[in-house]
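Holo prediction — 3-hydroxy-3-methylglutaryl-coenzyme A.
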Amino acid sequence: KLPKNVTIKEVGPRDGLQNEKHQVPTEGKVSWIDSLSVTGLSYIEVSSFVHPKWIPQLADAANVLKQIKREQGLTYAALVPNLKGLDGALEAGVDEVSVFMSASEAHNRSNINKSIDATYPVLEEVVREAKLAGKTVRGYVSTVISCPYEGYIAPEKVRVVSERLFEMGIDELSLGETIGVAVPTQVEQLLENLLPHFDAGSLAMHFHDTRGTALANIVKSLEMGITTFDSALGGLGGCPYAKGASGNVATEDLLYMLHEMGIETGVDLDAVLKSAQLIEKTLCKPLRSRQMEILRGE
Ligand code: HMG
Ligand code: MG
């Protein structure tokens, strides 16, 4: 019943760093991404071309993209909220762009300063222009289970936003459990609502792990046919515009679980741990994944 292969999309350099107060210098990001590039990962989200006032940590997105050593066959992606962001990302040589919005009105406004309805035409233009430039496009829907301002979100709302994004032409949709409150029964309910409408192969799950339920939610998603998962090294991450959101599921904990379940990812756990030690040093704080705790002998 479980898939034999799973794709891991590493979002640490973007989602992981966007919430970090300690400003990581560009060369620190570049050497971290270079170390991630040799772990066997096929996808790294390297930064965001958003307003630097909104996410100061990622203001150097263009330099990061330009300075990293590209591994062949690896997709280097970035978030873009609008055409200005797309222009910057294309100019810096991005492989794939991600557009993002929220299923909840309040989080959408808080995160990108627009209503849901006003967001559609902006993203439509971005997807069109990105496609004309020959790029693949990923879409994110945030707050798919719950919103820090509105509470629980009906799966129907998620379906409506997802449908609009697919109509625009996105290639893959990542479902963001932004604040890390979900439990497997809720994930099941969400996917039961979405899977009659969308191909499981075009969906990814993006779990934050605030309450320690992310791996359980991933097992439920696997059982329901999902084969792509976002994660961040060291369990870094969080959205500064979603109160109470903390880190993503840790890549190394996810890899440990999948490999022990006999599911292949193509990613080398030891190489990932080396890369985690590098960013741990740069951030001057212990990373809080189980694998890193074991490595530190805690
Ligand atoms: P706004 O202030 O409404 O933008 O912000 P605007 O269009 O009114 O423009 C205002 C000024 O910003 C103008 O400059 C623009 O040029 C400039 P001025 O004329 O005043 O000098 N501007 C930009 N500058 C640089 N790059 C740009 C850009 N766009 C406009 N791309 C905006 C709207 C969307 C830009 C802002 O709200 C923003 O940057 N938000 C980003 C928030 C963000 O990055 N959040 C975190 C990522 S989402 C997430 O974490 C969730 C996810 O992980 C999934 C999950 O967990 O659920 C993906
Ligand atoms: Mg996130």
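READOUT: Residues 155 and 257 are 28 Å apart (CA to CA).
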